Amino acid sequence: MDTSEFLSWLTAYLAHQSAIATIAIFFTAWVLFWLPVAIPLAMVLQWRPPSPLTVEQKLPLVLSLYLLAPFLLWAIAALQGTTFSTYGLGWESSTLLSVIPGLFLGAFGVGVLVALEGVLGWVSWPEQGWQRLLTALPIPLLVGLLVSLIEELVFRGFLLNQLQTSSPLWLAATGSSFIFAVLHLVWEGKEAVPQLPGLWLMGMVLVLARWVDSGNLGLAIGLHAGWIWGIASLDTAQILAYTGRNPEWMTGLSGKPLAGGMGLILLLATAAAIWGMAGLPFIPCQPTIFSL
Q1: Which of 2, 52, 67, 229 keeps 20 to 30 A from 120, CA to CA?
Q2: Strands (DSSP E) along the chain, which ranges?
Q3: pLDDT per position in the chain (292 positions), as tens?
Q4: Between 19-44 and 55-66, two packed helices, what is the crossing angle to 10 degrees?
Q5: Whole-model pTM?
Q6: Which residues, other chains included, contact 209 with Cβ-Cβ below 8 Å and sequence gap of 6+?
Protein backbone atom coordinates (compact mmCIF):
# COMPACT_ATOMS: atom_id res chain seq x y z
CA MET A 1 0.00 0.00 0.00
CA ASP A 2 1.57 3.28 -1.09
CA THR A 3 1.16 6.63 0.66
CA SER A 4 -1.81 7.82 -1.41
CA GLU A 5 -3.66 4.53 -0.87
CA PHE A 6 -2.97 4.68 2.86
CA LEU A 7 -4.27 8.25 3.11
CA SER A 8 -7.39 7.31 1.14
CA TRP A 9 -7.98 4.38 3.48
CA LEU A 10 -7.38 6.54 6.56
CA THR A 11 -9.77 9.23 5.28
CA ALA A 12 -12.49 6.66 4.67
CA TYR A 13 -11.82 5.07 8.06
CA LEU A 14 -12.18 8.36 9.94
CA ALA A 15 -15.33 9.20 8.00
CA HIS A 16 -17.03 6.09 9.39
CA GLN A 17 -15.93 6.53 12.99
CA SER A 18 -18.09 7.93 15.74
CA ALA A 19 -17.16 11.18 17.46
CA ILE A 20 -15.91 9.29 20.52
CA ALA A 21 -13.73 7.01 18.36
CA THR A 22 -12.23 9.98 16.50
CA ILE A 23 -11.47 11.72 19.80
CA ALA A 24 -9.87 8.54 21.16
CA ILE A 25 -7.75 8.20 18.01
CA PHE A 26 -6.52 11.79 18.35
CA PHE A 27 -5.55 11.53 22.03
CA THR A 28 -3.92 8.13 21.53
CA ALA A 29 -1.88 9.42 18.57
CA TRP A 30 -0.96 12.54 20.54
CA VAL A 31 0.51 10.49 23.37
CA LEU A 32 2.26 7.97 21.08
CA PHE A 33 3.96 10.69 19.03
CA TRP A 34 4.98 12.48 22.23
CA LEU A 35 6.58 9.49 24.01
CA PRO A 36 9.80 9.46 21.93
CA VAL A 37 10.29 13.08 23.03
CA ALA A 38 8.95 12.75 26.56
CA ILE A 39 11.01 9.74 27.68
CA PRO A 40 14.49 11.20 27.06
CA LEU A 41 13.29 14.62 28.25
CA ALA A 42 12.05 13.08 31.52
CA MET A 43 15.44 11.40 31.97
CA VAL A 44 17.26 14.70 31.44
CA LEU A 45 14.90 16.42 33.89
CA GLN A 46 15.31 13.52 36.35
CA TRP A 47 11.57 12.98 36.64
CA ARG A 48 10.40 9.47 37.47
CA PRO A 49 6.62 8.91 37.35
CA PRO A 50 4.51 8.86 39.41
CA SER A 51 6.50 11.32 41.53
CA PRO A 52 5.07 14.87 41.47
CA LEU A 53 6.39 17.29 38.87
CA THR A 54 8.22 20.42 39.89
CA VAL A 55 7.58 23.64 37.94
CA GLU A 56 10.99 23.28 36.27
CA GLN A 57 10.10 19.75 35.13
CA LYS A 58 6.50 20.39 34.18
CA LEU A 59 7.00 23.33 31.81
CA PRO A 60 9.32 21.58 29.29
CA LEU A 61 7.19 18.42 29.30
CA VAL A 62 3.93 20.32 28.80
CA LEU A 63 5.37 22.49 26.03
CA SER A 64 6.84 19.48 24.21
CA LEU A 65 3.42 17.81 24.30
CA TYR A 66 1.47 20.90 23.31
CA LEU A 67 3.69 21.75 20.34
CA LEU A 68 2.66 18.46 18.71
CA ALA A 69 -1.08 19.13 18.91
CA PRO A 70 -1.44 21.60 16.00
CA PHE A 71 0.29 19.20 13.58
CA LEU A 72 -1.95 16.28 14.56
CA LEU A 73 -5.08 18.43 14.40
CA TRP A 74 -4.01 19.78 11.00
CA ALA A 75 -3.67 16.18 9.77
CA ILE A 76 -7.11 15.21 11.08
CA ALA A 77 -8.68 18.35 9.64
CA ALA A 78 -7.08 17.65 6.25
CA LEU A 79 -8.30 14.06 6.27
CA GLN A 80 -11.80 15.25 7.17
CA GLY A 81 -11.70 17.94 4.48
CA THR A 82 -11.86 20.83 6.95
CA THR A 83 -9.53 23.54 8.24
CA PHE A 84 -8.69 25.15 11.57
CA SER A 85 -11.37 27.75 10.78
CA THR A 86 -13.93 25.00 11.37
CA TYR A 87 -12.50 24.60 14.86
CA GLY A 88 -12.88 28.34 15.43
CA LEU A 89 -9.28 29.36 14.76
CA GLY A 90 -9.19 31.60 11.71
CA TRP A 91 -6.51 34.06 10.73
CA GLU A 92 -8.88 36.98 10.25
CA SER A 93 -8.39 40.27 12.08
CA SER A 94 -11.54 39.53 14.08
CA THR A 95 -9.64 36.81 15.95
CA LEU A 96 -7.04 39.28 17.23
CA LEU A 97 -9.76 41.81 18.01
CA SER A 98 -11.36 39.22 20.27
CA VAL A 99 -8.12 37.95 21.87
CA ILE A 100 -7.09 41.38 23.17
CA PRO A 101 -10.20 42.25 25.22
CA GLY A 102 -10.38 38.63 26.44
CA LEU A 103 -6.78 38.84 27.64
CA PHE A 104 -7.36 42.00 29.63
CA LEU A 105 -10.71 40.80 30.98
CA GLY A 106 -9.06 37.63 32.31
CA ALA A 107 -6.13 39.48 33.89
CA PHE A 108 -8.44 42.17 35.27
CA GLY A 109 -10.59 39.51 36.91
CA VAL A 110 -7.58 38.01 38.67
CA GLY A 111 -6.57 41.50 39.81
CA VAL A 112 -10.03 42.21 41.23
CA LEU A 113 -9.99 38.85 43.01
CA VAL A 114 -6.64 39.57 44.68
CA ALA A 115 -7.67 43.13 45.57
CA LEU A 116 -10.90 41.92 47.17
CA GLU A 117 -9.05 39.31 49.21
CA GLY A 118 -6.66 42.06 50.31
CA VAL A 119 -9.53 44.30 51.42
CA LEU A 120 -10.98 41.40 53.41
CA GLY A 121 -7.60 40.94 55.10
CA TRP A 122 -7.03 37.47 53.67
CA VAL A 123 -3.79 38.26 51.82
CA SER A 124 -0.96 40.73 52.35
CA TRP A 125 1.03 42.61 49.70
CA PRO A 126 4.60 43.95 50.29
CA GLU A 127 5.42 47.60 49.61
CA GLN A 128 7.74 46.75 46.70
CA GLY A 129 5.28 44.25 45.27
CA TRP A 130 4.48 46.25 42.13
CA GLN A 131 8.12 46.31 41.01
CA ARG A 132 8.49 42.55 41.40
CA LEU A 133 5.17 41.95 39.64
CA LEU A 134 6.08 44.13 36.64
CA THR A 135 9.36 42.24 36.27
CA ALA A 136 7.51 38.93 36.30
CA LEU A 137 4.89 39.79 33.64
CA PRO A 138 6.51 39.02 30.23
CA ILE A 139 7.27 35.28 30.45
CA PRO A 140 3.90 34.26 31.97
CA LEU A 141 2.19 36.25 29.21
CA LEU A 142 4.01 34.34 26.46
CA VAL A 143 3.47 30.98 28.15
CA GLY A 144 -0.19 31.83 28.80
CA LEU A 145 -0.83 32.70 25.16
CA LEU A 146 0.82 29.52 23.89
CA VAL A 147 -0.90 27.20 26.38
CA SER A 148 -4.27 28.86 25.82
CA LEU A 149 -3.95 28.71 22.04
CA ILE A 150 -3.32 24.95 22.12
CA GLU A 151 -5.85 24.10 24.83
CA GLU A 152 -8.61 26.12 23.19
CA LEU A 153 -7.85 24.61 19.78
CA VAL A 154 -8.01 21.10 21.29
CA PHE A 155 -10.85 21.37 23.83
CA ARG A 156 -13.11 24.21 22.67
CA GLY A 157 -12.26 23.62 19.01
CA PHE A 158 -11.68 20.04 17.89
CA LEU A 159 -13.18 18.23 20.90
CA LEU A 160 -16.30 20.40 21.12
CA ASN A 161 -16.89 20.15 17.37
CA GLN A 162 -16.57 16.37 17.40
CA LEU A 163 -19.00 15.97 20.29
CA GLN A 164 -21.47 18.25 18.53
CA THR A 165 -21.75 15.84 15.61
CA SER A 166 -23.91 13.59 17.79
CA SER A 167 -24.97 15.81 20.71
CA PRO A 168 -26.63 19.19 21.28
CA LEU A 169 -24.36 22.08 22.19
CA TRP A 170 -25.13 22.00 25.94
CA LEU A 171 -24.24 18.30 26.18
CA ALA A 172 -21.12 18.69 24.02
CA ALA A 173 -20.06 21.63 26.22
CA THR A 174 -20.60 19.57 29.37
CA GLY A 175 -18.63 16.62 28.00
CA SER A 176 -15.71 18.62 26.63
CA SER A 177 -15.45 20.58 29.89
CA PHE A 178 -15.47 17.33 31.89
CA ILE A 179 -12.64 15.88 29.78
CA PHE A 180 -10.74 19.18 30.07
CA ALA A 181 -11.02 19.04 33.88
CA VAL A 182 -10.16 15.36 34.30
CA LEU A 183 -7.05 15.53 32.09
CA HIS A 184 -5.53 18.00 34.56
CA LEU A 185 -5.09 14.98 36.85
CA VAL A 186 -2.34 13.77 34.49
CA TRP A 187 -0.07 16.69 35.38
CA GLU A 188 -1.16 17.62 38.87
CA GLY A 189 -2.28 14.28 40.31
CA LYS A 190 -4.35 14.35 43.48
CA GLU A 191 -3.70 18.09 43.88
CA ALA A 192 -6.10 18.68 40.98
CA VAL A 193 -9.00 16.78 42.61
CA PRO A 194 -10.32 19.78 44.65
CA GLN A 195 -10.06 21.89 41.48
CA LEU A 196 -12.18 19.61 39.29
CA PRO A 197 -15.49 21.51 39.80
CA GLY A 198 -13.71 24.81 39.11
CA LEU A 199 -11.92 23.43 36.05
CA TRP A 200 -15.22 22.10 34.70
CA LEU A 201 -16.87 25.49 35.24
CA MET A 202 -13.89 27.17 33.60
CA GLY A 203 -14.38 24.97 30.55
CA MET A 204 -18.07 25.91 30.39
CA VAL A 205 -17.24 29.62 30.60
CA LEU A 206 -14.77 29.23 27.73
CA VAL A 207 -17.41 27.43 25.64
CA LEU A 208 -19.70 30.38 26.33
CA ALA A 209 -16.90 32.69 25.15
CA ARG A 210 -16.70 30.82 21.85
CA TRP A 211 -20.47 30.86 21.45
CA VAL A 212 -20.64 34.60 22.10
CA ASP A 213 -17.75 35.18 19.69
CA SER A 214 -19.61 33.77 16.67
CA GLY A 215 -17.90 30.39 16.98
CA ASN A 216 -14.46 32.04 16.98
CA LEU A 217 -11.87 30.95 19.57
CA GLY A 218 -10.34 34.42 19.88
CA LEU A 219 -12.22 35.54 22.98
CA ALA A 220 -11.74 32.17 24.70
CA ILE A 221 -7.99 32.18 23.95
CA GLY A 222 -7.60 35.69 25.32
CA LEU A 223 -9.68 35.00 28.42
CA HIS A 224 -7.83 31.78 29.19
CA ALA A 225 -4.44 33.45 28.62
CA GLY A 226 -5.43 36.37 30.86
CA TRP A 227 -6.18 34.02 33.76
CA ILE A 228 -2.88 32.18 33.31
CA TRP A 229 -1.01 35.48 32.93
CA GLY A 230 -2.44 36.95 36.12
CA ILE A 231 -2.08 33.89 38.35
CA ALA A 232 1.33 32.81 37.00
CA SER A 233 2.73 36.34 37.32
CA LEU A 234 1.67 36.50 40.97
CA ASP A 235 3.18 33.07 41.62
CA THR A 236 6.44 34.02 39.87
CA ALA A 237 6.76 37.31 41.76
CA GLN A 238 5.88 35.59 45.06
CA ILE A 239 4.38 38.75 46.46
CA LEU A 240 1.19 37.42 48.03
CA ALA A 241 1.05 35.86 51.47
CA TYR A 242 -2.02 34.51 53.22
CA THR A 243 -2.57 36.17 56.57
CA GLY A 244 -4.07 33.16 58.32
CA ARG A 245 -7.44 34.89 58.62
CA ASN A 246 -8.58 33.55 55.26
CA PRO A 247 -11.13 30.73 55.10
CA GLU A 248 -9.38 28.18 52.89
CA TRP A 249 -12.63 27.02 51.35
CA MET A 250 -13.03 30.56 49.98
CA THR A 251 -9.47 31.41 48.91
CA GLY A 252 -8.75 27.92 47.59
CA LEU A 253 -7.39 24.69 49.04
CA SER A 254 -3.58 24.54 48.91
CA GLY A 255 -3.56 28.04 47.47
CA LYS A 256 -5.36 27.00 44.25
CA PRO A 257 -7.97 29.65 43.33
CA LEU A 258 -10.15 27.17 41.40
CA ALA A 259 -10.44 25.04 44.54
CA GLY A 260 -12.21 27.81 46.45
CA GLY A 261 -15.37 29.87 46.47
CA MET A 262 -13.70 33.09 45.29
CA GLY A 263 -12.41 31.37 42.16
CA LEU A 264 -15.87 30.06 41.34
CA ILE A 265 -17.37 33.51 41.88
CA LEU A 266 -14.75 34.96 39.51
CA LEU A 267 -15.74 32.45 36.82
CA LEU A 268 -19.45 33.19 37.20
CA ALA A 269 -18.80 36.94 37.13
CA THR A 270 -16.69 36.48 33.99
CA ALA A 271 -19.49 34.50 32.35
CA ALA A 272 -21.90 37.35 33.06
CA ALA A 273 -19.39 39.86 31.67
CA ILE A 274 -18.78 38.05 28.37
CA TRP A 275 -22.51 37.49 27.94
CA GLY A 276 -22.91 41.25 28.14
CA MET A 277 -20.08 41.79 25.65
CA ALA A 278 -22.03 40.31 22.73
CA GLY A 279 -22.62 42.93 20.07
CA LEU A 280 -20.57 45.70 21.68
CA PRO A 281 -18.92 47.99 19.09
CA PHE A 282 -15.34 47.12 20.07
CA ILE A 283 -15.87 43.35 19.95
CA PRO A 284 -17.18 41.61 16.83
CA CYS A 285 -19.20 39.11 18.86
CA GLN A 286 -22.61 37.76 17.99
CA PRO A 287 -23.96 34.59 19.62
CA THR A 288 -24.24 31.80 17.10
CA ILE A 289 -24.45 28.02 16.95
CA PHE A 290 -21.31 26.39 15.62
CA SER A 291 -20.69 22.79 14.65
CA LEU A 292 -18.45 20.57 12.57
Answers
A1: 229
A2: 123-124, 241-242
A3: 555 554 455 555 555 567 788 888 899 999 999 999 999 998 998 887 777 778 788 889 999 999 999 999 998 888 878 888 899 998 777 777 889 999 999 999 999 999 999 899 998 887 777 788 888 899 999 999 999 999 999 999 999 999 998 888 899 999 999 999 999 888 777 778 899 999 999 999 999 999 998 889 999 999 999 999 999 999 888 888 888 888 888 988 877 889 889 999 999 999 999 888 765 544 444 444 454 4
A4: 140
A5: 0.89
A6: 102, 156, 219, 220, 223, 274
Looking at residue 17, the DSSP 8-state letter turns out to be S
> In whole angstroms, what is the distance from residue 283 CA to residue 207 CA?
17
